[in-house]
Amino acid sequence: MKRRTVLIGLDGATFSVLDPLMNQGIMPFLKEFLVTGARAPLRSVIPPLTPPAWTSLVTGRSPGNHGIFDFFLKEETGPHIRFATSADVRCETFWSMASREGCHITVLNFPLMLPPPKVNGNVVAGGWMTPRQLRLGCRPEGLYDQIKAIPGFDPHRVVLNLAHEEKALEGCNLSEYDEWIRMHIERERQWFNIASFLLRDEPSELTGILFDGVDKIQHLCWRFLCPDASQGPLSMREEEIRRECLLYFSKLDEMLAGIVTLAGPDATIFIASDHGFGAQTETFFVNAWLAREGYLSWSDRERPRESENAVLGMRQIARHVYMLDWDKTRAYAATPSSNGIHVVPANGSSTAGVPTGEYAAFREELIQALCGVTSPGTGERVVKQIWTREEAFAGPFMRSAPDLTLCLRDGGLVSILDSDEPVKPRKMPSGTHRPEGVFMARGPGIHRGLCADELSILDVAPTLLYSLDLPIPAEMEGRVSEDLFLRTHLENHPPKFQTLRDSARTPKKGIGDNLLFDAEAEAEMAARLRAWGYIE
Amino acid sequence: MTEVTRGSVLETVLSILSKMDEDGELEVEITPETWLVADMGLESIDVVVLGTTVQEHYHMSMPFAEFLAEVGQRETRDIQVREFVDFVVRHLNGMG
Prior knowledge:
heterodimer; A: alpha/beta; Alkaline Phosphatase, subunit A; Gyrase A, domain 2; 2 domains; 10-stranded mixed beta sheet; 4-stranded antiparallel beta sheet; 20 helices; about 35% helix; globular; B: mainly alpha; Non-ribosomal Peptide Synthetase Peptidyl Carrier Protein, Chain A; about 0% strand
């Protein structure tokens, strides 16, 4: 067997949470790992969102080149959006590259792996799964039956229990947090058991496992994990919840130790997150603002409004098709997750929309107007940065991306709901994504105790391929993170580069090229997004 | 392209549904008359995945979203296996 490499994904992990946990003795394994390994901040993509970020990590390509911008994909024409699948990833991943080069691989719980790709090894798709889909999400045939035989295996605990998640969707009163957090501890344990089984029974040259509870818990419990001193001390009950959160990280640390031990002393271990985390303190109701400015018009149907249990509008994703008056709407936000605004192009069947010749001026007008959105309390600008699609998503699939992508001053997600005021402070801060995630590495030839400069998430794929002694495609946009490696190691093992074969150079054609998305199914998916903490 | 028979599509769809329920709670045989939601207890996302899996099998995209949106407008928001199969057959044979 060639040198073994393990990639452990920690969705949403951030050093601002992990460092105190390591220093407080909650994550002793991780602390020791970094004493003998290297660490660096890891800069995510725009937007710092799970589907585009993990896809960039495993392909070494930016979203405009791999075609994933959100949990959903918008049709190039028309307002419909559909759920993104593995068929929509238009670049080769390092899973398939390694498989093609003869490596045996194991991939567990990574998003956008359904339908599971054909590789030399084992795949259990992760992300958006129901228990029924687990068998379909396993490759090869028969893998699911092997997993089923693992003691304690429960498909309902491997995937997210929607009924349980609904409690979090409805605002999750303080008495329900414990069960919710322990559910995530159990989920991680289920995935750990699967990983352990395969590491023992069928070890691979490349193994990947993703723990996504970090993201979910940080979304819902940020104010307990990173309490804001200005909000006063935590109550007794809140301290109890905080201890449950710390229990999650403590158990996760034990699982990291278990995986690294099973990988063996000569394995190269990478630990990475797709983005970081921070607090969201206010909500920008972008569609409400667009309506107020005359860019958007709600239809005669009941318009979706913010409420006690719906702040960002995840349940309304895809319903914009029915909620908006398309004869009068020129710009809208389809999903909170993308923080994106779409410009409606004019077409022959409607008087609305922006003609091609007016697109640039209209978009610039929109940008200037968004720059003028201020917080009612402080008068400060709410939209910190705005990217055009050319700036954020340059590449062959740019036209599937939002026309504008916003970065709010608190890094938060927009709301697509209607509201009486376009900007409102949140009653309680919640966790939201930040661009700066984590990268950690340990293994043969890697510096010990190194704190390196920030890496790009695009650097992970070439670095991982290098660790496997595999050639790095010239088309990858990242670089091998040579700072991580000892000079002697680099001299003895110089990186190898190649040009992709012609067949691999052409963007993969997705089966779903012309897929439309069902609004009801989208609503179900939106419920999951809410449950996983993208909403209150 | 050779015309695809209804029987072969039915076999494919039943095979996929059987896999989805292989470890599940359905105690009766899945037949063309089986209702995906009422009988099998599928969630909307399961039906979406069913569509995705069928498309992958045949290497052809089909307008499932439109189809399911029409179902969503019905009083009974459910589909029998035979109707799902008929939809697939129509699109495989270019009779959208």
